[in-house]
Amino acid sequence: MNIQPVVLAGGNGSRLWPISREIYPKQLLHLTGDKSLLQITMERVAGLRNMLPPIVVVGIEHRFVSKQQIDELDLFDEYSIVLEPLGRSTAPAICGATEFVRLRSGRETLLLVLPSDHLIEGEREFVDAVEKACRLAAAGRIVTFGIQPEHVETGYGYIRKGVDDAVMAFREKPGIESARKCIEEGDWYWNSGMFAFSVATFQEEIRRHAPEMQECMVEAIKNGREEQDFFSFDAESMTDVENTSIDYILMEKTKRASVVVADFSWKDVGSWQALWEILEHDAQGNVHRGDVILHSTENSLVMAEERLVATVGLRDTVVVETADSVLVSSMSGGQDVKKIVEYLRENGRDEFRFHRKVERSWGSITTLEEKPYYKINRVTLHCRSGLAMQKHYHRHEHWVVVSGTARITCGKDVFLLQENQATSIPAGVIHRLENPGAIPLELIEIQIGPYLGEDDIISYQAEYGGDED
């Protein structure tokens, strides 16, 4: 019985703002150790038996760094990355991935859908649960994995288990009293968001309960396109697709839902409190990172990225400092952090979308200052890496090398720059920046022009080669 793993690695992780942002979200961050959540999930997939080459669904802006992180593991001879041009929650992603699998492997293929932001302990128990779920899926069920609740939690959905593993009811993210009642009744489990089903079963049920979404995502696959190492859903086909979860649109309605109760330890790294629970505590119950001084502080999470953070007299509090934002929240208020993100988005603020420092496969770029008509960046390139050949219509760029060696392509000219040397790239000229050396390249970039948006980049990767822009 061959099983097709599908890893969902889209999403913005808004409840972990300001560390997690739209351009570089939580699944790509090293939150719990030396590997990202995506890498940890891919290692879990590699430990399963009878698996087809995995499929990873990511946002189109995360394609290069996702590929880089998967390749770093060196675990898979083959895998596919499917791109979402528009963020539309789990239902469209799963619908599209299922149609993608149908065309490649057929209607009888079993899918195992795994979010990329879970931590699981108990490898043997996880494998056992997957195999049981796949047996139920082969019999025509849509299977979810239930987690024994550890406490009253309003950030998860709840599943009520009935006879023969059937799902009696769903309760999506209940209020505090409703969640407490679920715990007291004893036959409710947290909905993990992991699923197993056959292509045929899923598509029969989604056509019954959400035919418009199914039609949209079939078109998104039909009109999609191969892009180098990626396959992209068609953006125009997805324009009107509903932005909703698979739980709302299908699992709460289908009569073919089953639940496998998991015996393994499971954590959804979806909030600051969840991260606090996972990470190592000091004697006062605190989790802290960076340049932090804690005085009379207990059961709190304090993180500093850019400067000293000192706390006095805090209890059950989250303090997270980054280069451009500071979050202070009660530990219990972590589920509402996404409302701050919504406010930033609605009011045209960039802090929900960009970090001041953005990691790329080739290195990083840090915005030092930005004003109308100019922006100053610090650009770092890894050894023997480079940006794609590109041009800009509305901005000029001036580069000053701080350390290392830069190889510059500017129109038809190719030349080297060393420390304290500079060059200018006029608007409209095709150019490329590379680091041919054995040490990192660092330079200061000054952008000047009436429009400095990141969408003013015309990339020539396919023709000229190179990494992402």
Description of the structure:
This protein is α/β, with parallel strands linked by helices. It is built from 11 helices and 31 strands. Strands 1, 2, 3, 4, 6, 7, 8, 9, 10, 11 and 12 form an 11-stranded mixed beta sheet that branches. A 6-stranded antiparallel beta sheet has the order 20-21-22-30-25-28, with no helix packed on it. A 4-stranded mixed beta sheet has the order 14-16-18-19, covered by helices on one side. Helix 2 (63-73) links the parallel strand 2 (55-59) and strand 3 (80-84). The longest helix has 16 residues, at 90-105. The chain starts with a strand and ends in a 5-residue tail after the last helix.
How is the secondary structure organized here?
Blueprint: E1 3-9, H1 37-46, E2 55-59, H2 63-73, E3 80-84, H3 90-105, E4 110-115, E5 118-121, H4 123-138, E6 142-147, E7 158-161, E8 167-171, H5 176-185, E9 188-198, H6 199-209, H7 211-222, E10 225-227, E11 230-232, H8 246-251, E12 257-261, E13 265-268, H9 272-278, E14 287-289, E15 292-295, E16 301-304, E17 309-312, E18 317-321, E19 326-330, H10 337-346, E20 357-360, E21 363-371, E22 374-381, E23 385-386, E24 390-391, E25 396-403, E26 406-410, E27 413-417, E28 422-425, E29 431-435, E30 441-448, E31 458-459, H11 461-464
Parallel strand pairs: 1-2, 1-4, 2-3, 3-11, 6-12, 14-16, 15-17, 16-18
Antiparallel strand pairs: 4-9, 5-13, 6-9, 7-8, 7-9, 10-11, 18-19, 20-21, 21-22, 22-30, 23-29, 24-31, 25-28, 25-30, 26-27, 26-29
